[in-house]
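[Solved] Which block belongs to which protein?

Original post:
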Amino acid sequence: MPPRGTRPTDKFDDDDYPAYTMGRAAEMLGTSPAFLRTLGENRLITPLRSDGGHRRYSRYQLRIAARARELVDQGTKIEDACRIVILEDQLEEAQRINEELRAERSPAPPSA
């Protein structure tokens, strides 16, 4: 039984839900399963495993993999593409944290 307050359809909205098999993920990205395995070896994405041990990917992981594929298609070595995507992700997170801190420090607007 699902936890109270959740609906089975909530999984459809969850970017982190591991909904895609390796074959389906590779097909969606227009790449091979070997490409996805290489991304895992380079620690860009770590797929979850089904009870049977098969790799399962989330929508978030597929977006990350798609970005790496863009870079590889532009001639970047796959190892370098993985590092670039990791650094882009870290920069985005740092910018988000900065923005939150700025918002906390800024004075509240005067009320009318």
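(Second protein starts here: sequence line, then its structure tokens.)
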Amino acid sequence: MRERRVLALSGSLREGSHNTALLRAAGKLAPSGVSITPWDGLADVPMYHADLDTAAPPEPVRALRHEIANADALLLATPEYNASVPAVLKNAIDWASTAADASRLAGKPIAILGASPGALGTARAQLALRQILAAVGAEVVAKPEVIVFHAHERFDERGELADGLTRTLLAGLLAALADRVGPKLSEHDVLQTADRE
């Protein structure tokens, strides 16, 4: 069976970001036959400008669209800024969904997750992100929800995800995403993945 490629984008540009650390953990918890490929080029993507959205867009935009088009699915990690999605992530979605030839997001399986030091985690940001992705025709995985609150307590001193429940939820989310692009995984496979070091 062909390996399924999941493109992972973090909506946080901060060094030491808990959301980027969540994506690293996802790479270790990915089910067999699934690879998690992080892409750190969002900082280089200019703010959306319709006059630049031509057949020859800026190079970072072309690279973003290429990465998304060549992925079987997306994994989006969002922090929560002012009760919503950070501009860098919304900007990437705008560029990816408005290509002159075809949207890169329509019909694309997407899973979302997020971490925040606050008590509500990223619940409001994820709700906003679900609405945005529904508007562009993406296929968003509904459950399980991975909303990591008090994120500074969930990672160890090396930045590794150490919380067992979060690991189980994350493994379940990745299995649900893999189901959208390949054979279904058993509950046994999901739990084994979550327990893997």
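Accepted answer:
You had them paired correctly. Confirming on the second one: The longest strand covers residues 4-10.
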